[in-house]
Specification:
The structure is a homodimer of 335-residue chains. The first copy, chain A, is α/β, with parallel strands linked by helices and 335 residues long. The first copy, chain A, has helices at residues 49-53, 130-142, 161-170, 182-190, 205-212, 227-235, 265-268, 285-297, 314-323, and strands at 3-9, 22-28, 37-45, 74-81, 91-94, 101-104, 112-113, 150-153, 174-179, 195-198, 217-222, 236-244, 272-275, 305-309, 329-333. In chain A, helix 2 (130-142) packs across helix 3 (161-170) and helix 5 (205-212) packs across helix 6.
Chain lengths: 335, 335
């Protein structure tokens, strides 16, 4: 492998990203120098947070540079190694997605050898990877969910949400999941969600929540924001915990929408709203992968994914995240 | 003492409360039955949260009833006792303010004997009472303030805010206080506040905060809401804690204002916003009063109060909370 195609950021999107914001280029991969490896990517991930890196503003991760290949989670296979601890055939995760392959030092690529636990490689970009860990950390460490509690999950059929719902059931909770469309809501029922709310068919989310959870909710897992957050504030029981992990409804708004007008309810109800980023909790990864592999083996944790093929289709796969065309974890198969 | 004048809620205010929402009435006090005491009130408190109880809506405390005496913190003296553990001359706190006296069972009045620690009785409605405990709980238990951290306090010259500022200094913090007007800001400097911001003379609170705290803030003590919360979100350092304890700017708004449009910053900065009500933390009262009495004796904790006289002036004293005419804890002297 000496040539690799990659996707570069051509221009910064305003609002919704479009295909013309990206360009395809081909680079030659040098053989690995001492201390380096060469990796052929098998799958890459597209994630909503990448939209933030396409904008030039201060954030917890630096913006993507114009004219350069973007970055993101990927699973690949070592094809040549000049670095101790890595051998051809090893399956690895890295942060050098958006390209078919790369030659790099392991630490520069954030390379990690994968112990597959019998799972297919792309699971480590989804249910057993960052989205899964996000669900695990947000529900259990930030949301402090306890047995018997009622959990409300927005974007419940998404890569993170579907894992939140299933872990909440495994932990003995009552789960309300919100998703857009009948097909996604039907899927939620198949993974054990007690009450599925189709937000596209619902005018008043607060009323919909009150109907299925008349006593209110104890935990809200927010990966949407907007109306869902306002409804969750209305539905919250005293001392409820809100795990805030990105607000997909806001990524494409050039001007941010006003926050929920009922935020003041957090005082009287003594709510805790806490934002988190999964990379601050990588210390829980080993525990999580062990738990997740066990739950998958026991049939308690399943997943849905949408797979597009070919690096040239990665921009369109990314855009699908915002049009709702994907179902579960959105992946691009590269090799 | 057999007659007591009291203030009743005559009509529910819309927006800013007005004198005509209240009426003065006189009742006869019966002698204490077995298990009861008769109390002559010395001071009563007026507090912003009482505005919430004037509106008929579900909240963490039930609304005041029309045509009946309102309730609130008061300090009084036992004048007759038919209850064990209480003797004439004892100084007590109760929740039966808004009246000159009462006959009641101790538990119905939430009667507590005061160990004065040498402080004047009204201190137990302010610096050594609920406002002081609110400051202590919010800064140390909810805000988890640590030595060397930067603390931003809104309504910093108020009954709660002035105690927050001083405890933050005692605990080794850098303190930024916001208050309305030059006089209040000058007062903040006298109690050790490092940077006083006159929000009435400031167009851009975010810029004002960035100037005095270029590295950002670690703790925000919110007793205002609105613009201050938005500016605090902008100024927050990663993992900052926001103690949310009432939003005085919202009490009189018939329609709630939109929440901060930058709430989504809580995700990337991994902020914790937590609402609290002081009555959930009464278990900390003994620790707090012991600490506060020691700090007062050492000259490290002082306070300002505004005292109006006579039960007939209590409604106007209450209204002053919202027009900013008070300075520090607002009290009404009754006896």
């Amino acid at each position: 492998m000496t040539a690799s195609r990659e996707i570069r950021l051509k221009s910064r999107p305003h609002g919704m990203p479009a295909p013309e914001n990206f360009e395809l280029a081909t680079v030659e991969l040098p053989p690995p120098a001492p201390g380096e490896v060469q990796v052929k990517n098998l799958f890459m991930s597209v994630d909503p947070y990448m939209r933030g890196r396409m904008t030039d503003r201060p954030s917890y991760v630096p913006p993507f540079e114009l004219g350069k290949a973007m970055q993101g989670g990927a699973i690949g296979e070592i094809v040549a190694s000049n670095a101790p601890g890595f051998a051809p055939g090893d399956v690895v995760s890295s942060m050098l997605g958006w390209r078919e392959g790369f030659t790099a030092a392991p630490e520069a690529a954030m390379l990690q050898k994968i112990d597959s636990h019998g799972l297919p490689p792309q699971a480590f970009l989804g249910v057993a990877g960052m989205p899964g860990l996000t669900a695990y950390v947000g529900l259990l460490k930030i949301g402090l969910m306890k047995e018997g509690e009622t959990v409300f999950v927005s974007a419940a059929s998404g890569a993170v949400g579907q894992v939140v719902c299933q872990i909440a059931k495994i932990k003995g909770g009552v789960v309300i999941g919100s998703a857009g469309g009948a097909e996604k809501c039907a899927y939620l029922k198949t993974i054990g969600v007690d009450h599925a709310i189709d937000y596209r068919a619902t005018e008043d989310l607060t009323a919909a929540l009150a109907e299925v959870a008349p006593k209110g909710i104890d935990v809200y897992f927010n990966n949407v924001g907007g109306d869902h957050l306002a409804a969750a504030l209305n539905a919250a029981r005293p001392f409820a915990r809100f795990a805030l992990c990105g607000a997909i409804s806001m990524y494409n708004d050039a001007a941010p929408p006003p926050g929920p007008s009922n935020l003041t309810l957090a005082v009287g109800k003594q709510l805790r709203l806490e934002g988190f980023i999964v990379s601050s909790h990588f210390d829980m990864m080993a525990d999580f992968v062990r738990d997740a592999a066990g739950w998958i083996e026991a049939g308690k944790l399943t997943w849905r994914e949408t797979v597009d093929e070919g690096i040239e289709n990665a921009p369109r796969a990314f855009i699908k995240l915002f049009t709702g065309e994907n179902f579960g974890k959105m992946l691009v198969k590269l090799g």
